[in-house]
Write a structure and sequence with these properties.
binds zinc ion, L-fuculose-1-phosphate Aldolase, nine-stranded mixed β-sheet, 2 domains, alpha+beta
Length: about 425
């Protein structure tokens, strides 16, 4: 069952809990709503910001969600969020917006403090999921004036609005879409903040974004039922995807895992699906370049097929846009792996591939990856890692992110001192032959 097919109360409880769990809001700061066909509004209850005995929105229960009728009256014990005025103003102005999410995630709050919007051309995923961002001037929280200022930005066509000295509001045709816009935007803001600490930030041109559109969908093939080994791989892919989300390497809208089945056959995660909510049946089998009928594989499927074709000992490919490693991928500063033995031996020198290469020349991109060269960065995209197993490829992604984080945070302490060339040679001789 998909989220959007459940009752609005259940959707709001599920997404509120997730926003809090994923560190996208404080208990007092998040509120969500869904408009129903009768003009009523399902909305989170007033939280701890108003009274010390308010609802714990980190564990919001469906029965805590308030329904406000079209005339503004409310039935039941709970009071609605104090931000009701802007939720109603947005959905009045934009009837296509049926769900609204508001929160105070730290990186977007930073942008709100300088009265600027984050750069959405930072990665294709952010550009496609979130889209352009408006800016609303400061007004008193809970006031009709704030509602008017935000609704005016939605009226201009924006689905995301930064509120000066406050936070962010995202809308969408359903609650999952609105949530994914907020989540992708907060990741974009985190990446941009880290990348600005490194130097200049690159953004994607229209021509670069257009290259994502190229390519016909793969032909379909009707699959036979998965055998025991394939079922086990599907289970592991789902489990590792969830682990990656919990560790903030993936989000609901970014992260790809594939695993070789043998011959010219592999499994890959689907395109456009909520990563935290994947089931084994959502995984797509690719057989000789043809996709399992009725399913839509990640657009990285062609690249992954090429990686398996040129690397007989690679059995898994994992890619993602974790904040710190992606900060290097969008900046002009090179990622240096000569930090600690783990990073240097496991990652080697991490090359930076041009943005277009994985789409336009998947074979050439595939030749940049091997067991000895298991990680590459793609300009304005993220990190691709390979391994002999799913866990090994996932580990390389995690090592890349942790190494990038250590380097970026070192800047507050002083100039990092790389491992010396003679020590690197010793490391290479001792460990690399065993990889
Ligand atoms: Zn707020």
């Amino acid at each position: 069952m998909t989220l959007s097919s459940t009752h609005p109360r259940d959707q709001i409880a599920a997404i509120m809990t997730r926003i809090y769990r994923n560190g996208l809001t404080t208990l007092s700061g998040g509120n969500l709503s869904i408009r129903d066909d009768d003009g009523g509004l399902w909305i989170t209850p007033a939280g701890l910001g108003v009274t010390p005995t308010g609802i714990d929105k980190g564990r919001l229960r469906p029965e805590d969600v308030v329904r406000m009728r079209a005339d503004g009256s409310v039935k039941g014990a709970q009071r609605p969020s104090s931000e009701v005025p802007f939720h109603r103003a947005i959905t009045d102005r934009r009837p296509d917006v049926r769900a609204v999410v508001h929160a105070h995630p730290a990186a977007l709050v930073s942008f709100s403090l300088v009265h600027r919007v984050p750069e959405v051309r930072i990665t294709p995923q952010v550009f496609q999921v979130s889209g352009p961002v408006g800016l609303a001037a400061y007004a008193l929280p809970g006031s009709a004036e704030l509602g008017e200022k935000i609704a005016a930005q939605f009226g201009e066509g924006f689905n995301n609005v930064i509120l000066e000295n406050h936070g962010v509001v995202c809308g969408g045709p359903d609650l999952l879409t609105a949530f994914q816009r907020l989540e992708a935007l907060e990741y974009a803001a985190r990446i941009e903040i880290k990348a600005r600490g490194l130097g200049e930030v690159k953004t994607l041109s229209d021509a670069q974004l257009a290259c994502l559109e190229t390519g016909e969908p793969l032909a379909e093939v009707r699959p036979d039922a998965p055998d025991e080994a394939e079922s086990a791989l599907r289970r592991q892919m789902v489990e590792i995807m969830q682990r990656g989300c919990a560790r903030q390497l993936f989000t609901s809208s970014q992260g790809v895992i594939s695993a070789r089945l043998g011959g010219d056959r592999f499994l890959i995660t689907p395109s456009g699906r909520d990563r935290e909510d994947l089931g084994e049946e959502d995984i797509v089998r690719i057989d000789s370049g043809r996709r399992e009928a009725g399913k839509s594989p990640s657009r990285a499927a062609r690249l992954h097929r090429a990686v398996y074709a040129v690397n007989p000992d690679v059995n898994s490919v994992v890619s993602g846009q974790p904040v710190y490693a992606t900060a290097y991928a969008v900046s002009t500063t090179r990622f240096d792996t000569r930090t600690i033995p783990e990073s240097y031996t496991l990652l080697a020198e991490v090359p930076l591939l041009p943005f277009e290469m994985p789409y336009r020349e998947p074979e050439a991109a595939a030749r940049c990856l091997s067991i000895r060269q298991p990680v590459v960065m793609v300009e304005n995209d993220g990190v691709i890692a390979v391994g002999r197993s799913i866990l090994q490829a996932f580990d390389r992604l995690e090592v890349a992110e942790t190494s990038a984080r250590a380097l970026i945070e070192t800047a507050a302490l002083g100039e990092p001192k790389p491992i010396q060339p003679s020590d690197l040679e010793q490391l290479t001789t001792r460990f690399v032959p065993h990889l």
